[in-house]
Amino acid sequence: MTSLSPDNRVEDAHPVEKAPTEEGTSANESEGTANTTNTTAVVPEKVPSAYNEQIVANTAKEAGEGELDFPDGGTRAWLVVLGTALSSTASFGYVNSWGVFQSYYEQTLLRTYSASTIAWIGSVQYMMVFLPAVLSGRLFDIGWFKIPYFAASVLCVVATILVAECTQFWHFLLCQGFGVGLACGMLYGPTVGVIGHWFKRRRGLAMGLTAVGSSAGGTFFPIAARKLIPLVGFPWTLRILGFILIFVLAIPNITLARRLPPKNLQGGIFNPRAFKNLAFTVYALASVMTYLGLYTVLTYIDISAVQVGVSEDFSFYLVSIANASSALGRIVAGLMVDKIGAVNYIAPMTFFAGILTYAWPFAKSEGSLIVIAVIYGIMNGTFVSSFLFPLFELGPLADIGRRTGMVMTLSAFGVLCGLPISGAINRQTGGFEAVGLYGGSVIVVAVGLMVLTRWLVLRRWWGRF
């Protein structure tokens, strides 16, 4: 059964069963390996002292399974970070280039369709990055990682090349929306779990460096697509991007690996017992609300710039500028989360993202739009790279894959609905002022839910969390 501790962290009282990995490792072999580790119970850092006794008990239980002996560095661990960074480049970074495709489709291949209709392709793509996380997270927990990851790598390349052959709206929706999105979701989902196996004390830094890969991809792919299309045409542009993805994904397929023994916690792929923890439920809702508005600026800043007279040759760079500046937000977030706590840093930075969403429609010049793109990129990168961190504190590490997968899957519905809602508002009003009001408001409400989560955990409005 699952019970709540006084600080709303989940304590799982079910017996833990070892599950075979895809390589055939037996449960007995896993136990034999685990028994060689140091079993000294250590009180984790960053936990309020009032709850130390409970955490010590949980930690002692996990210590016998090798979960306390984290490398937190070394050649092998940093090779894992290299793999996760490149995985983010080919998944989240690639998907974050959607704004350029939206603009291109509106002006050429799908010009007979409305902006909100075309936005469904991007929304489905973003949604599919999050939706499979509940499956990939569960597979990761029970030991299945390498085979699903390789299959997703193949699908990502094949779907990208197939986009080159698309001519109808439903072609793009199927290949770029569902195909590329599903592949990127299966690639990105397990990366949080992999980092959790190799890092603890420096987990924030490792995740920050991982997220830099997303910024690199979000910067490179839009520029590459925009420059290649006039030179070689749209079909060959997508084929070239597919070949680039082969190289980028080859490295993580070699370097990424699980370290800890697999565990088969009861509850299935989706564990509804987790929602008995009110703090977990509120934080999951905060994530959904944030993603209802978070990608509004990144998707429409290119189009809004053209509408106010900025040249098309320059406007497409705004997406790349935002994605490039997000690298700074991701790195700093990784450092600050380790120092002051995840929500303590994520909440104010996300609040500023909401304020900038309000301000974006009123930027009417190249200079003001660049300022918006740079600052918004930093705020956006902070949330995207760090919003899963609080989940490490809301349950046992053995269940982290499923727990993060559940939140990402729920967030997918926010991503799915956010862009079409923004497109519909733009169509009805003829401008982006109301779009900014919608996007900024849902983000600000989400920040309020993050602060409420902190209170539910600590039972006070301020503290390390």
TrEMBL record:
Listed GO CC annotations: membrane
UniProt feature, compositional bias: Low complexity: 33-43
Give the membrane topology.
Answer: Multi-pass membrane protein
Any single GO molecular-function term of the entry would be: transmembrane transporter activity
Chain spans, region Disordered: 1-43
Where is the sequence biased in composition, kind Basic and acidic residues? 8-21
Q: What residues form the membrane-spanning segments?
A: 77-95, 115-135, 147-164, 170-192, 204-224, 236-256, 277-294, 314-333, 345-363, 369-392, 404-425, 437-457
Write down the superkingdom of origin.
Eukaryota
| Location within or outside the cell | Membrane
| Sequence ranges of Polar residues compositional bias | 23-32
> Residues of the signal sequence?
none
Give all residue intervals belonging to the Major facilitator superfamily (MFS) profile domain. 279-465
- Which InterPro entries does the UniProt record give? MFS, MFS_dom, MFS_trans_sf, Proton-linked_MCT
Its primary localisation, in coarse terms, equals membrane
**Keyword annotations:** Membrane, Transmembrane, Transmembrane helix
For this protein, the record's PANTHER family field holds: EG:103B4.3 PROTEIN-RELATED, MONOCARBOXYLATE TRANSPORTER
As for family, the record states: Belongs to the major facilitator superfamily. Monocarboxylate porter (TC 2.A.1.13) family.
Question: Per its record, how is this protein called by name?
Answer: MFS general substrate transporter
